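[agent] plan:
  1. take the single chain provided in the ticket
  2. run structure prediction with default settings
  3. attach structure tokens to the ticket
  4. add a short note for the reviewer (M.T.)
[agent] executing step 1
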Amino acid sequence: MAALSVSNLSKYFGAHVGVDGVSFDLESGETAVVFGANGAGKTTLIRMLASLSRPSEGEITIDDDSLVGNAAIRSKIGVVAHETMLYEELTARENLRFHARLHGVDESVCDDLLETVGLAARGSERVSGFSHGMSKRVSLARALVHDPAVLLFDEPYTGLDQTSLSRIESVLTDLKDRTVFASTHDLERGFELADRVLFLNDGRLVGDLEVEAIPDAAAVEETYEALCRGRPAEPAVVDRAGPADSGGTR
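[agent] step 2 finished; step 3 output follows
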């Protein structure tokens, strides 16, 4: 039984296809990183996995239970989105405590997580005064408050200072006991993090490879380009209107 299973997942924005029939399974403790150009559908895919956007077609299951419309299963997921979605008027510690209360978790875990992300000394400060990198670290700590089985991470390395980059890399490297699905443009760091590499092009999954099948990080882009050859250059369209959604692809 896969920890995370995606079957024929699609998302339509009117006549435009954001994600087109994507399927894959991740085992418990496995880390998959998805690569793709801007507009390939990476963020749209992660938003559906995070239950922030409803699929037009297909199914997502966590431990063999359907995710869509199932609040109990959503609690098994931790999400670090491209936008941190923190309450800026609250302190770092208050953000974590609020999330802990939502999940019925002992608030003592919050101080431990602030230590983990290197912000124990700044926990009493409002996040409105934090840099992007510091806010991203608070967001990661929040995603781990309820000890989720699956962690979703959209662009973990974008716009980070060196301190935050090193700290987040360290935390992600240590998450070997849970399933991780991340998207990134950083080929080298993504390759180092991954057990598997998925490639999206125009919303389609064009490749799903074990890291051992790719010689090194420098070969990731070459592999992606090779997998995309023969695909239509223009975005896919369908001849039916799907449900409206305010999101988009990245």
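[agent] step 4 note for reviewer: The mean pLDDT is 88.
[agent] ticket updated
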